[in-house]
Design a protein that fits this description.
heterodimer, A: 414 residues, alpha/beta, Rossmann fold, formyl-coa transferase, domain 3, 2 domains, 6-stranded parallel sheet, 15% strand, B: 404 residues, 3-stranded antiparallel sheet, 17 helices
Chain lengths: 414, 404
């Protein structure tokens, strides 16, 4: 979809996914690394277990489909070369600490003088400017400041984050890609580029949903309730279980309101009844009138004792199969093993083999994030090696001679 | 004021709940004209979900609904009505993009599948999003954001090592897939601009969420290593966690990434002797003695407010941030600086806040022009102004109860 458009990807490990999304959509994404390679190449896990800059699976996965050149932006000559690249580029993506690009003379104001059509996208913990604009931020800091952690975890323990990084890799990088495309659409109409300033904190805050109006409209403050869901009608606050233990793991289920909730709830009670585990109380509930926000904690508890006993009798697999057959909105809490065994992913040909000639093997990757009928996303090019495309870009495109390239390498420019 | 970025874009929105409406809101906030098709017979669940303004239930009073529907038009249309196809023809002919998140197959059943609709508009771009995608044995199995968090493994990666998993708050997939979808939609529009060709986009929220887990999945595939939850620990930083502060349920998150930062941290907390203490002098030793290390950090944070901890550490260049609750989020000076919340008067809900996208476009920023629509408030406007029907035609449809 975006073939022929070029992104210069200056991101650190917290912004790789933005370029990966554009590459999946067909853009020519060129990862620009300092000589010796990005520090993200030394992020675990590693293929074969041993740390090596061309073996990081973290690097592989988030840089699939990109090309790569080395360039020292701290060097004056390096910056001159970069300015040549800017002339032919459509996007720049960066995730340096705020203010850093200014010190290099490569901030948006400087860049747009060279190419006024360029979309310049920044990803940072708190966005540029403002009282926290220069604050340091990591995943856990963004998850805290964005409000996610207050709402996650057991009440008797500290607030909790997800154990793998979400704020930058999942949220901010994606929001940055969207901001880039909105600006691009505008540019295609008007010719004018602009700066897209993405905040990880705001990206996390954008996931909070109903707890925001719950506070603003009803002054009810949601809190963390472990494996349950915080429910409030505005007057009352209860917790409803969402994660349940079963015989060999866990499943997710909640009795929901509304038409589809009622169908699912009825189907579960029927199943419990079929196995002689339902009592009059469970059978007597009128699910058409059920609203999970308007029942008492005691009611939730009574329902949950009964459902919980039933789930504990069954394995994940049994619950998965039965729930699917009976139209119950339940899913197992998957391990990676479960995900690899998904018949749905198999049927949709989700997994993709990508060749890594240097490793003398192919690796299986999760497939494209979207299926497009006219322009299918293809994942063919493995993540680039350090400086793999220096010759293509510097020599073939910019016309820098081989001798000159060698000199630039000696001087530490590329 | 500059014309907004997506001013020329026309979106027909058949989606419901969060995964679709959030996507079309992101477009609407940047200037796209979005017409939501709703029905009295098949209400968007969020219209009948708390919280309500003034705690008073009403179809046009839900803050949950309004959060995802700013700047849009609402038209009610009974898709089963005899004359619905006629109106559909006008609507599809009008739009650039159609978005839907019904259970796969539901649009086809009514004769409104992509293949049907492209007969009306050959270059239509249609986006369908669902839990597990179109086709395959589990395609029609409905679900919610929290079931997807479980299915994708995110739930399994949230929690303490010594306990069962916790629920990762809300539904990250519901909140991020819309942005991925919008990104792909805009790319498809560029493709149409260049080639004249539309297409059908199919996003499985299951698959899209796994996209982000790629490093962990590829590692599992190659080495069999099941990455597991580890509370607030990190594989590459210590101290790393959430530490108790003065007040009830007040905490501050702190990350110390390397030895240089550790030296700074020790000076800031007034314990310079710890820099060379062999229990903590290297990253490896800090990891090996993490419980003791966390006790020392907590000992310092406990006597201070969360704000003090954050400010003191940030001033020294250490990453730290208050664990903010929803009330704090509304008062956050940085989010306020970005105009993250903007307010507007809603006819039934009164003056209240809407959330802007988490990125700022320097030349064409997002703008809140209209509150979330009341159910069916724009039937006449959409028919006569956007679709160009005559007043008589509109009244004819109205009399036959097409708008229900």
């Amino acid at each position: 979809m975006l073939s022929g458009y070029r992104a210069l990807d200056l991101t650190t490990s917290r912004g790789y996914v933005c370029g990966r999304i554009l590459a999946d959509l067909g853009a020519d994404v060129i990862k620009i690394e300092p000589p010796g390679g990005d520090s993200g190449r030394m992020k675990a896990p590693f293929y074969g277990g041993k740390a090596h800059p061309d073996r990081s699976i973290f690097w592989f996965a988030y840089n699939l489909g990109k090309r790569a050149i080395t360039l020292n932006l701290k060097d004056l000559e390096g910056r001159e070369i970069f300015k040549k690249l800017i002339q032919k580029a459509d996007f720049i993506i960066e995730s340096f600490p705020t203010g850093y690009m200014e010190t290099l003379g490569l901030d948006y104001d400087a860049v747009q003088k060279i190419n006024s059509r360029i979309i310049y996208t920044s990803i940072s913990p708190f966005g540029h400017g403002g009282p926290y604009g220069n604050f340091r931020g990591t995943d856990i800091v963004a998850m805290a400041m964005g409000g996610f952690m207050h709402l996650t975890g057991d009440p008797d323990r500290p607030p909790l984050r997800v154990s793998f990084p979400v704020a930058f890799n999942m949220l901010a990088s994606t929001q940055a890609a969207l901001g880039t495309m909105i600006a691009f659409h505008h540019r295609q109409r008007t010719g004018a580029g602009q700066h897209v300033d993405t905040s990880a904190q705001a990206s996390v805050a954008a996931t909070l949903g109903f707890v925001l109006p719950l506070w603003e409209l009803n002054k009810v403050l949601a809190r963390r309730v472990g494996s349950a869901w915080f429910r409030s009608s505005g007057d009352t606050a209860t917790q409803q279980r969402v994660i349940w233990l079963c015989r060999d793991g866990a499943v997710a289920f909640m009795a929901m309101g509304g038409m589809s909730g009622a169908q699912s709830n009825r189907a579960l009670v029927k199943w419990i009844d079929d196995e002689q585990m339902a009592d009059d109380f469970l059978r007597s509930i009128d699910w058409d009138k059920f609203d999970p926000r308007n029942v008492t904690q005691e009611f939730h508890q009574k329902v949950e004792e009964r459902i919980g006993r039933f789930f504990m009798k069954h394995s994940k697999k049994e619950l998965h199969e039965g729930a699917h057959r009976r139209g119950i909105h339940l899913q197992m809490v998957s391990t990676f093993k479960d995900i690899m065994e998904s018949e749905q992913l198999e049927a949709r040909h989700f997994w993709v083999d990508v060749s890594h000639p240097e490793l003398k093997t192919t690796l299986k990757y999760p497939g494209p994030f979207i299926k497009a009928s006219e322009t299918p996303v293809t994942l063919e090019r493995r993540a680039p090696l350090i400086g793999e495309h220096n010759k293509d870009i510097y020599h073939d495109e910019l016309g820098i001679s081989t001798t000159e390239l060698e000199n630039l390498a000696k001087r530490g420019v590329i | 004021m500059a014309e907004q970025a997506l001013k020329d874009l026309k979106v027909l929105d058949f989606s419901r709940v969060i995964a679709g409406p959030l996507l079309t809101q992101l477009l609407a906030l940047h200037g796209a004209t979005v017409v939501r098709i709703e029905s009295n017979h098949f209400l968007d669940r969020l219209r009948i979900s708390a919280p309500y303004a003034g705690k008073k239930m009403g179809l046009n009073r839900s803050g949950y609904f309004s959060l995802f529907n700013a700047n849009k038009y609402s038209m009610t249309l009974n898709l089963n009505h005899r004359r619905a196809p006629e109106l559909m023809k006008h609507l599809v002919g009008w739009c650039d993009v159609l978005v839907e998140n019904f259970v796969p197959g539901a649009m086809e059943k009514r004769g409104f599948g992509y293949e049907d609709l492209r007969k009306i508009k050959p270059d239509l771009i249609m986006l369908s999003t669902s839990n597990q995608g179109r086709g395959g044995p589990l395609s029609r199995w409905g679900g919610y954001g929290y079931t997807l968090m479980a299915l994708t493994g995110v739930t399994n990666l949230t929690g303490w090592e010594d306990r069962a998993c916790s629920h990762p708050f809300g539904a990250l997939s519901d909140m991020i897939c819309p942005s991925l979808e919008a990104t792909a939609l805009l790319a498809a529009i560029e493709h149409r601009r260049r080639t004249g060709k539309g297409q059908h986009l199919d996003l499985s929220q299951f698959e899209a969420t796994l996209f982000y887990l790629s490093p962990l999945l590829v590692d599992y595939i190659t080495s069999g290593n099941e990455f597991t939850r580890m509370g607030n620990k990190s594989l590459c930083a210590a101290p790393h966690g959430c530490y108790p502060c003065k007040g009830e349920d007040r905490w501050c998150a702190i990350t110390v990434e390397n030895d240089e930062e550790w030296a700074v941290f020790c000076r800031v907390i007034g314990k310079p002797e710890l820099v060379n203490d062999s229990r903590f002098s290297s990253f490896e030793s800090r990891k090996a003695n993490e419980p003791e290390l966390n006790e020392i950090v907590s000992g310092w944070t406990r006597g201070k407010t969360d704000e003090e901890v954050m400010m003191t550490l940030q001033e020294a260049g250490i990453a730290a941030g208050v664990v903010q609750n929803p009330a704090d989020i509304f008062k956050d000076p940085q989010l306020a600086h970005q105009g993250h919340f903007q307010m507007i008067e809603h006819p039934e809900m009164g003056y209240h806040s809407y959330e802007m996208p988490p990125f700022t476009l320097s030349a064409t920023p997002a703008r809140l022009n209209k509150p979330a629509p009341c159910l069916g408030q724009d039937n006449e406007y959409v028919c006569t102004k956007l679709l160009g029907l005559s007043d008589e035609e509109f009244l004819g449809l109205l009399k036959e109860n097409v708008f229900e």
